[in-house]
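Pipeline run #58 for the internal structure catalog. This entry was flagged by the ingest filter as a single-chain record with no existing model, so it goes straight to prediction. Upstream metadata was stripped on purpose; only the residue string is passed forward. Reviewer on rotation: M.T. Logging verbosity set to normal.
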Amino acid sequence: MIYGIVLAGGKGERFWPLSRSERPKQFLKLTSDKMMLVETMDRVLPIIPRENFRIVTSRSMETFILNNVDVLQKSQIISEPVGRNTCVAIGLAAVHLRHNDPDAVMVVLSADHLIRPEEKLQQIIKEGCTIAQENDCLITIGIVPTRAETGYGYIKLGDPFEHNGNYKTHHVAAFAEKPKAAVAYEYYYSQEYLWNSGMFIWSSNSILKAIAEFQPELAEQLEEYAAHIGTDNEIAAREELFKKAASISIDFAVLEYAKNVLTIKADIIWDDIGGWNALPRYKKVSKENNVVIGESILLDSYETTVYNEADGIIACLGVSDLVIVRTDNITFVAHKTEVDRVKEILAELGKDDSTTKYL
């Protein structure tokens, strides 16, 4: 059976102050009138029934999800006591699925992506699931680049993988980290690289086998935990697992070493909505290249993003290249070239007990 594993444990710090500790990015309505987590599930519903979703998230978010996402049951939430990156999160989901369904196929999705058209993604996932059911392989969905992007990781295409599907599938020759601008242009024009979307398809058995081969210590910890699934000791065993487990991504831990990694070439619109500078790519842009959300007025202002979630109005006169965000108790102003340094502000706020309420 096919299951959707939605990774929803991130903090979404680059969307501060809209994204806060009590309401991270994946629970915002940034790309539509739906919470991004709900939108992630809805776009693949024709392939994965809602009861087959499992949400891996922080324990602090469990109550919020149950109170705000009425389509999910408590049994569908796998909560992490602390964040330990994607390898242990995926391993945790895999042992849970294996416990009830030894033939489970996992479609791993992030809760904060924009993807269009949904129908094409569904076809790609369906084809990937067929490959994963028939082969011991680890599949990534690679996005055909539309620009020389320095903010994404890349996948280098290897030899074609022969199968009876409609989408070109290749062995992965190599993974490449976020490149410098010159290298990004080289990747883009070579047509030999895809963006690494962070969406994966594999059987629970295949990914656990790969973790055992390349991260044997984590594999042993996962098996120790798996023995307690469904028992009164499950939560305590999970605490112990996360105390011991290393914080490492599935890419660094497994995919860069495994020889059975494939990538499906996806010519779709995809954006990981990483921060405020992503908004002009999917929101309405004025003739002055401004993005305005909420009550605001801009005169002689250009290339500026304004997001007003509070009462009152934001008025801008003669400004350019700014990000201006107003919530109920925070006003954030940054130059677009500096906006990704927002974590430095969060670090400062975290130093004083009187300002941690703004995190």
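catalog note: The chain has a mean pLDDT of 96.
catalog note: The CA atoms of residues 99 and 113 lie 29 Å apart.
status: ready for reviewer M.T.
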